[in-house]
């Protein structure tokens, strides 16, 4: 690439370093502030769950327990009060989405001819149309905030189609594992 497009692409990659991948949550992404050394943090606290969320506070508590497990496995120490180096803030939402599919239109049928009489004719049936379906999509976002600077230093997010209100512990573990796989970001991602 040359010219303005190359310059904009390079500038964008320096300003916003984020990555996306696919997994149990569908497409996920993460982003972090490169001015912070995310390997320097040693402790964390889970911020109080937002009980006004449309997502069940019990479900959010289970997500918080899994985040605690994942960060502890990464070597960070959980502290009960808000004195951790990092504050973990859990956001969850759901919304109804609508997909529509257009099958185009075409027809099928047969034609007939009678050469001697000069008769020509046929019949056909049009086929096609649009189909719509609605579904509920849930989004999970984990924010890690530097407690001293009160600055967001890392964010992981992902969305998936929800198949009912009951979400198993295995699904929560898979979703949080997928989000937390890039915390701290891989060394080759840090420039």
Describe the 3D structure.
This protein is of the alpha/beta class and 191 residues long. Helices cover 22% and strands 46% of the residues. The protein contains three helices and seven strands; from the N terminus they run αβββαββββα. It has a seven-stranded mixed sheet with strand order 1-2-7-6-5-3-4.
Low-confidence stretches: 1-22
SSE order, one letter for each helix or strand: HEEEHEEEEH
What strand line-up does the widest sheet have?
1-2-7-6-5-3-4
**What is the overall shape?**
elongated
Q: Could you tell me how far the N terminus lies from the C terminus, measured between alpha carbons in angstroms?
A: 21 Å
User: Which structural class should the secondary elements be placed in?
Assistant: alpha/beta
Strand content: over 45%
Task: Please report the total strand number as a whole number.
Answer: 7
Portion in helices = 10-25%
State mean pLDDT (0 to 100 scale): 75
Sketch the major β-sheet: 7 strands, mixed
Alpha carbon gyration radius: 26 Å
Count of discrete alpha- or pi-helical segments spanning 4 or more residues:
3
Brief sketch in words of this structure:
The chain is of the alpha/beta class. It is 22% helix and 46% strand.
List keywords for this structure.
single chain; 191 residues; alpha/beta; seven-stranded mixed sheet; 3 helices; elongated
Structural topology:
Elements: H1 3-15, E1 18-23, E2 26-32, E3 43-46, H2 57-73, E4 77-78, E5 86-114, E6 119-146, E7 151-161, H3 169-180
Parallel strand pairs: 3-4, 3-5
Antiparallel strand pairs: 1-2, 2-7, 5-6, 6-7
Helix pairs in contact: 2-3
């Amino acid at each position: 690439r040359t010219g303005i497009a190359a310059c904009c692409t390079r500038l964008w990659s320096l300003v916003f370093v984020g990555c996306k991948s696919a997994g149990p949550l569908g497409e996920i992404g993460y982003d972090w502030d490169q001015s912070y050394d995310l390997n320097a943090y040693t402790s964390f606290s889970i911020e109080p769950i937002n009980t006004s969320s449309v997502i069940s506070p019990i479900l959010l508590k289970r997500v918080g327990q899994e985040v605690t497990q994942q960060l502890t496995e990464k070597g960070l120490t959980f502290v009960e009060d808000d004195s951790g180096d990092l504050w973990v803030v859990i956001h969850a939402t759901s919304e109804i989405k609508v997909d529509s599919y257009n099958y185009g239109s075409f027809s099928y049928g047969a034609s007939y001819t009678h050469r001697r009489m000069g008769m020509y004719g046929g019949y056909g049936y049009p086929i096609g149309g649009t189909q719509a379906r609605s579904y509920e999509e849930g989004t999970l976002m984990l924010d890690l905030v530097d407690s001293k600077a009160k600055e967001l230093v890392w964010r992981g997010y992902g969305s998936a189609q929800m198949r009912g209100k009951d979400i198993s512990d295995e699904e929560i573990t898979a979703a949080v594992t997928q989000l937390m796989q890039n915390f701290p970001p891989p060394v080759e991602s840090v420039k």
